[in-house]
């Protein structure tokens, strides 16, 4: 009697080839994804560096503006305590950005009678930048409200600033 069906032994020859191909496809897909992520991260890094340098320059320019306004208030030769923001503050170039700081001065009294000399500083990119530098944001980059404490009267043309308080510091878009 002849058998029509004979059980053949099924060996696993060729399975290693299939596993090797699957392994190579998976490793290739992961490697390709990582390469695309690295390339994308490099482009984002440059944008982040530019934004960071612009914001640091604006912060430094406002700090310079605070020092200049404080000097204008205390300098006996300038007598600008009543209007320390009357003259424009000079532009400041830091981190390859030229920043223009403007200020607004307000004065008054609190409900308890303390004198208030508040100055609001706003930093923007100057219209003219050093060669090769592009300022992506033409609006306000950083804004700060500062209080200059003094026991002098509000009508004094020169004051002794005893403390300088940063009341708020905001970074724009």
Molecular structure report:
- By secondary structure, this protein is of the alpha+beta class.
- It has one domain.
- It has a five-stranded antiparallel beta sheet, covered by helices on one side.
- The protein is rod-shaped and about 125 Å long.
- The model has no long low-confidence stretch (mean pLDDT 84).
Structure characteristics:
1 helix, five-stranded antiparallel beta sheet, single chain, 35% helix, rod-shaped, alpha+beta
What's the quaternary structure here?
single chain
Shape by Cα distribution: rod-shaped
Strand order of the largest sheet: 1-2-3-4-5
The largest sheet, given as strand count, sense and whether it forms a barrel, is: 5 strands, antiparallel
Number of strands: 5
Tally the helices: what do you get? Answer: 1
Radius of gyration from the CA trace? Answer: 33 Å
- Give the number of domains: 1
Query: Which percent band covers the strand fraction?
Result: 25-35%
Helix content: 25-40%
Structural class: alpha+beta
How far is the N terminus from the C terminus?
A: 90 Å
What is the arithmetic mean of pLDDT? 84
Report low-confidence residues grouped into runs of 5 or more: none
Q: Could you state the order of secondary-structure elements as H and E?
A: HEEEEE
Write a compact overview of the structure shown:
The chain has one helix at 15-74; strands spanning 92-94, 97-109, 115-125, 140-149, 163-171.
Topology:
Blueprint (H helix, E strand, L loop, with lengths): L14 H60 L17 E3 L2 E13 L5 E11 L14 E10 L13 E9 L2
Antiparallel strand pairs: 1-2, 2-3, 3-4, 4-5
């Amino acid at each position: 009697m002849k058998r029509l069906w004979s059980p053949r032994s099924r060996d696993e020859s060729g399975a290693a080839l299939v596993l090797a191909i699957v392994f190579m496809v998976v490793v290739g897909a992961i490697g390709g994804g990582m390469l695309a992520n690295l390339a994308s991260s490099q482009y984002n890094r440059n944008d982040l560096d530019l934004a960071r340098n612009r914001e640091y320059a604006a912060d430094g320019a406002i700090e310079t503006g605070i020092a200049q306004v404080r000097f204008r208030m205390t300098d006996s030769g300038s007598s600008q305590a009543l209007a320390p923001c009357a003259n424009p503050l000079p532009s400041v170039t830091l981190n390859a950005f030229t920043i223009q700081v403007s200020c607004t001065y307000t004065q008054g009294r609190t409900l308890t009678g303390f004198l208030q000399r508040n100055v609001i500083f706003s930093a923007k990119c100057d219209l003219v930048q050093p060669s090769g530098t592009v300022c992506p944001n033409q609006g306000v980059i950083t804004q700060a409200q500062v209080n200059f404490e003094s026991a002098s009267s509000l009508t004094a043309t020169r004051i002794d600033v005893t403390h300088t308080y940063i009341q708020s510091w905001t970074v724009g878009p």
